[in-house]
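ok so for the tutorial part 2 we go from a plain amino acid sequence to predicted structure tokens. step 1 is just haveing the sequence, like this:
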Amino acid sequence: MTNLLVRIDLSRKSFSKGQRKIAAFIEEHYDAAAFMTAAKLGEVVGVSESTVVRFATQIGYEGYPFLQKAMQEMIRDKLNSIQRIEVTTGRIGDNDVVESVLNQDIDKIRRTIEEVSREDFKAAVDAIIHAKNIYIFGVKSASYIASFLGYYLDLIFGNVHLLNSNSKTTTYEKLFRIGEGDVMIGISFPRYSIMAVDTMGFARERGARVIAITDSMISPLVSNSDYVLLARSDIASVVDTLVAPLSLINALLVAIVINCKDKIIDTFSSLEQVWQEQGIYAFEADEERKNDT
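step 2 — the prediction. this is what the tokens look like for a chain of 293 residues:
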């Protein structure tokens, strides 16, 4: 995945006068151009819509929507909360909010299906299954899906260390024993966590296998990872929409269960017995009390 600005630079000599105008505007104002239609961008720059479309293909994209997504990738990590609200308001406009947001989530899941590497996915499953210890890092909104993944992996394997603090002291106190045979799973989406990047680098230096769950191959998590699992996220006002990452984590857990079926059945048989004896679940506890009387 070549950076948009690099693509422009490599193609600059072949640009027409109109294309040079588009390139200059994108280089200086890609944060504004990212949410313009081809027609609007052409109007602002002073060229035709068809010139904008040809510009996109000239620098190697399949069409203008792909150029637009590339511009959006560039700004997503830089948008502050107020800018996110403005972008979301502009996207939805007078449309039905429920339909708009849910359709965006459906699109993110569809793109995740297309983009996630099946090879890296299988390798990540194998690494987790055979890990001596599993470390999971996720802070801010990513901490909730990190906790979800950690909850089930700990039930299955019992060797999970959840790192969900922004405190360097707390994080490295939990992480300093990591080494060969261990696995580190780092989860971060725009705006990316510096701590996620640093802790994944630390884990890799210590010989652990490192898995990144992030949204793009230009994510800063990628450089410190052995396996990259892409799941599309997006801006939903000040809220990070993490439906696709959660679906990917569900797929990861299902794959682990399928590959360790016999062992996991034994584990959950014991758990079911404990849950029943201790009256953990409401309806089952009520039934047990009726039987006792």
